[in-house]
Write a structure and sequence with these properties.
The complex is a heterodimer. Chain A is mainly alpha-helical. Chain A has 11 helices and 5 strands; from the N terminus they run αααααααααβββββαα. Chain A has a domain at 280-472. Chain B contains 9 helices and no strands. The chains are: A mainly alpha, B mainly alpha.
């Protein structure tokens, strides 16, 4: 909506509301029975109409349109969110104005009238929707989840209404709320009421539009926030690793200098002090393997299993291909910015294969995601926290989602396999990617990754993912005789066995 | 779809039979709730007998939340949800299977609770068919809506607090109609029972249909 239109709606809302107040409070006559109390009729029904029909109807409609694939767009999601939020406010206002009206009329603030009860239940239902919306998630996941929740809540509305009506007619005599709205309403009162409806509806539209704009701006800021937090995180991870290295005092523990993003000079190169630039890739591998055994011992002696699969961070020596030299690349294809030039990786065999299938397009545009996919195949020494004591992270407590650090030191969480393969996206640290050499068109599976702001990530969950990946591709629905499900107990027994062996 | 539902229900019930979480945690909780209700209302037999149907259904409602949380805690294990998704099972089948497993557990729970109501509150059943029909319909509705919302909040870190907030207002019609129907069944004359059964049936039908339709997108979103 254009700002001019938005502003004019706002002005119109203010003008009509002012006119309603003036007419309602000064021009119209008081009621014979209710006296001045009747003036509440100019705002209470309009607010209720906006909340109960306009807002929640709009929310349900736009949720439905979001869920329908052909009309799916974030517009409907934002519209639903805005409508619900404004609707909840109006719903609360309905209850408040109704209570204010009810106290002098009926002598009580609240009565278990059918209409009151179902309005209150509606408020709670959509408060639940708002609570669900507050749960941090990727925008698309959140949109889908919230749309479903809105529909679930909406189908409940008629049932709630009828059950409450029948409940209270069985329970007690019906309290008729709307006896006040007699059909023979005074002329000026009728016009004021109509104006009240127009005013409140305009105010509603204006609020929803503004709220929608806030939602759009928030999403835009979210994009920028990602950039900023990425840079911060990189700088931070550089410091942390340097701290680890000095605490460990293992000179052979080679650490990679973190990339230095432009405009965010962090203390990234400190870690280089411990690494000898002349160290060859072989010796680094072996050194990390030798340190692995000592850490394996430490992990075994620890009372609680710090490594859920029985593997220590260094129990698997990274293959030779993990270390490559950017200098070998032709100058035009050197990767810039991701790593120090002498240590940037040349394309590996899977990398080249990947490029043949469409190159960058099929990999996540998240910076470092390509290295990340490589990391899944060959874990780089030095990437990830160094001491086993740091790994208090139990994947079982993280809903079983594997976490990794990509070569930039960014924590990544594997959200799942599948989604929309071949169409990389990035929204708020959410990315899809594929394993190298496994382009979706060739039967590979897409990965859904999320950037996590967490230092305690598992560097060696790649094994689980590789295992998952090696499994035969997804069977056609309806063919399989059994499903791949085990009780949690079966899984838990595994690390104990391996540690014991 | 039905075969998938049977598979999933069988899996859930087998896990339940082996772990016995429902038996040793949910059932004692429900009985404890009955006792606590009695403490809250005082020892007067008249008041307790009058409140028995409502308290029964309140206990069932709270236990439903626990059962749903348990049902989705099973799927919370390492990559189990991904496994379920990759297994090629029909989402509608998964939904029906999980709902059926929950429904069966809830029915057993209601039997125990009914015994508790009879023993503790001195309630006596005059129209058994009404109570049984109401229970079955309400259980279908409870488990369908509960599983739908359980899937909605599965995988969230705040699911323990979010699920009751989301699901309890939705289940309010079941509480209303169920307790009225039970009150009618416990009273000497079953007045207005048919209307209440209609509400329970409508609730069950709506949530089974909506769940079958929307479980697919929900599973993708989780």
């Amino acid at each position: 909506m254009k700002p001019v239109v938005l502003r004019s709606i706002g002005v119109a809302a203010i003008v009509t509301t002012a006119a309603t107040i003036w007419l309602g409070l000064w021009v119209t006559p008081p009621d014979k029975v209710q006296g001045d109390l009747v003036r509440l009729v100019y705002i209470h029904p309009p607010i209720a109409w906006c909340a109960l029909y306009l807002a929640f109807g709009l929310a349900a409609l736009s949720s439905l349109l979001y869920l329908w694939r052909r009309t799916r767009s974030m517009f409907w999601d934002r519209l639903a969110a805005s409508a619900v939020e404004v609707g909840v406010v109006f719903n609360a206002l309905t209850l408040v104005t109704g209570s204010i009206w009810g106290r002098p009329t009926w002598g009580v603030w609240w009565t278990w009238d059918a209409r009151l009860t179902s309005t209150a239940l509606l408020l709670v239902l959509f408060l639940g929707y708002m609570a669900l919306r507050r749960v941090p998630a990727e925008p698309e996941v959140r949109a889908k989840r919230c749309a479903v929740a809105a529909l679930f809540a909406f189908v409940d509305v008629p049932i709630v209404h009828f059950s409450v009506v029948w409940w209270q007619t069985l329970h007690q005599g019906a309290t008729v709320l709307n006896a006040n709205l007699s059909p023979t309403i005074h002329g000026s009162m009728a016009w004021t009421l109509l104006l009240g409806f127009v005013a409140i509806t305009l105010a509603f539209i204006w609020m929803v539009a503004v709220r929608y704009r806030i939602e759009v701006l928030r999403d835009e800021i979210g994009e920028e926030e990602l950039e900023v937090s990425l840079a911060e995180r990189r700088a931070e991870s550089g410091t942390v690793e340097a701290g680890f290295a000095s605490a460990e005092a293992t000179p052979t523990m080679a650490l990679q200098p973190r990339p230095e993003p432009a405009g965010h000079p962090g203390p990234t190169v400190v870690s280089r002090a411990t690494s000898t630039p002349a160290t060859s890739s072989r010796s680094r591998c072996s050194s990390s393997t030798s340190s692995a055994s000592s850490y394996a011992g430490a992990a075994l002696s620890a009372p609680s299993p710090t490594w859920p699969h029985g593997a220590t961070p260094f129990s698997r020596a990274p293959p030779r291909t993990a270390r490559r030299d950017n200098a070998r690349r032709p100058p035009g294809r050197r990767r810039a910015g991701t790593r120090a030039p002498e240590q940037t990786a040349a394309p590996s065999a899977p990398d080249r294969r990947l490029r043949r299938f469409g190159g960058r397009r099929s990999v996540s545009p998240l910076r470092g995601a390509r290295e990340f996919t490589q990391l899944l195949r060959h874990r780089r020494p030095g990437a990830g926290p160094e001491t086993p004591a740091r790994h208090v992270d139990d994947p079982a407590r993280r809903n079983g989602r594997p976490r990794f650090r990509d070569p930039n030191g960014l924590g990544c969480e594997l959200l799942g396999v599948g989604g929309q393969p071949g169409r990389p996206r990035r929204e708020r640290g959410f990315a899809t990617g594929t394993l190298p050499g496994q382009h979706p068109r060739r039967g590979g599976r897409a990965l859904r990754l999320r950037l996590v702001d967490d230092l305690l990530v598992q560097p060696d969950h790649g094994e689980a993912l590789r295992r998952l990946h090696r499994e035969p591709p997804r069977p056609r629905p309806g063919r399989q005789r059994h499903c791949a499900m085990t009780s949690p107990g079966d899984r838990r027994s595994r690390p104990a066995k391996r540690v014991g062996a | 779809m039905w075969r998938d539902a049977l598979l999933v229900a069988g899996k859930d019930l087998r896990i339940e039979a082996r772990s016995r979480v429902g038996l040793w945690q949910v059932v004692p909780f429900a009985l404890l709730a009955l006792v606590l209700f009695a403490f809250a209302l005082g020892p007067g037999p008249v008041a307790l007998r009058a409140a028995a149907p409502g308290l029964f259904w309140l206990a069932v409602l709270f236990s439903t939340v626990l059962a749903i949380q348990r049902s989705f805690a099973i799927e919370g294990g390492e990559g189990t949800r991904d496994g379920l998704r990759l297994s090629g099972l029909d989402p509608a089948g998964i939904f029906l299977g999980k709902a059926a497993a929950v429904a069966l557990q809830l029915l057993v729970l209601q039997l125990v609770l009914f015994a508790g109501v009879v023993l503790l509150f001195g309630a006596r059943l005059h129209t058994p068919w009404l109570a049984i029909t109401a229970s079955v319909l309400a259980t279908i509705g409870l488990s369908a809506a509960g599983v739908a919302y359980g899937a909605l909040s599965a995988g969230l870190r705040v699911r323990e607090t979010l699920l009751p907030l989301l699901v309890l207002p939705v289940l309010a019609p079941v509480l209303l109609a169920g307790s009225r129907a039970w009150a009618a069944a416990l009273a000497t004359s079953p007045a207005g029972g048919g209307q209440l059964l209609k509400i329970l049936g409508a609730f069950a039908a709506v949530y089974v249909v909506v769940g079958v339709v929307l479980y697919g997108p929900l599973q993708e979103a989780a």
